[in-house]
Design a protein that fits this description.
By secondary structure, the chain is of the alpha+beta class. About 40% of the residues lie in helices and about 20% in strands. The protein folds into 2 domains: about 1-70; about 75-230, no CATH class. It has a 6-stranded antiparallel beta sheet with strand order 1-5-4-3-2-6. A hairpin with a 2-residue loop joins β2 and β3 (about 140-150). α2 (about 185-205) crosses α3. It is elongated.
Amino acid sequence: MKSSLRPRHFAKAAKKEKYDEYEIRHTKYKARVGEADARYDQRAEGKELNRRIEEQRHQSRTWCVEEQSGRFSMTREPKIPMSPEELPQQRIHEVITLPARPAVFDCVVGQRIYPKGALPLKPSPNATYLCQVEWAWSPAHNRLNTYYLHRGRTHWSLWYKYWDDNYMKWEWDSIGCVPQGGVDKRQAAVYLLLEFWADEANSSTLDEFHWINEDGYLSVADLAAIAREVW
């Protein structure tokens, strides 16, 4: 009687052939998966790029609407320029005169005790964006401040946002206030910032900012005029 079993070498050859076929199928599968992953990554990158572009467009539209309507709110996060081309033109600007200082300007600036009830816990969403300036003493030693003016019930208050390297986010700090009586918005913006910088220059020998990253409610000409008064 003939045996139905194959000789051992035939069995090994069949097993190897089956394994090779599996390897070929698996390799093709991995190639298809790799192509699919690559296409997915490209789509994901494209979506992320489109999201960022749309976000920038939205910020630009928001900023333009605020600029045209005369409102510079804090709804837009500060933008840090990454190249000189992104800075506002500041080498040549109009030389202007600051508004008259109020007869009574009883302000408090710096890290001091403020009148009770003069400051909120943080500015309202309608706080006015003033400007962003930067000091760059060295690659590892710089300072970047973004200033806002808040109108409270009784006081104007000056705030700034600074970049916290430890937590990688913007943080708020209050740096000045003045009673609203007899002080309009422009006077509050100009002279609170002027008094704060003068206090910093006297107490910590702060030098003039090295450049203006963004102008806002206060123009480049306004900031240059304030700097002339302080430094």
